[in-house]
Amino acid sequence: MESSALACLGNIFVDPKKALQDVLPHGRWAWYPLIVMILLSIAFTVWYFSTVDMGWFTNQTLAAMSGKYSGDQLEAMRQGFTRGRFLTIGIVGSTLAVVILLLLQALYFFFVAKISGYEPQTYGKWLSFSIWTSFPNVVATIAAAVAYAFASAQTSYYAVDVTSLNTLLFHLPLSHPLAGVAGSVHLTTFWCLALMIVGLSLWSKKSLGKSSLIVLTPWVLIYAVWIIVKLV
Fold this sequence. Notes:
This protein is mainly alpha-helical and 232 residues long. It is 74% helix and 0% strand. The chain is built from twelve helices and no strands.
């Protein structure tokens, strides 16, 4: 039975090997997971910033920034902390973050394939690969939405990010230099990395060990540099 893009949206969770094999010849199918990821991210951002207590949110945000700016500077910032501005920043920021990360991941796999002689070698194929293997990140967005549904209007954006390592394990305040690092890693991050390793092995016909090295190396380097910069 021939698979479909919609079937692959489900199979990426329950039968990832089949999904990744099925999407290989269908680059345009990547639009489906991409649109779902972006729309869910935008929907949650709009919901949060439309309902959060802006007075409380503003005070919390300025308190986290108090060590970096003077009182006058903070008061000047307060004037610009409007619901509309945060809605715009949230929508644009969340969309760009998803798209840029996917484009960069695809570029990395494209160069690896070219240098190593792997198949396929077109950028479009690796962009499709990057999108499909990142699709489980929607679980983090859905989990945050569920958490916010049971939270009050005085709950931070980071507190409802219940799958992040910062929320689950470290509980670092926003003022901590490593809060951003810990908050950027989610349980779904490891899920996506595992999919990339399995997918790269399937697509390139290389071992899981070699695929793991290729997939994990840039992540380890980026986070190592990020941590060092934050601690220096």
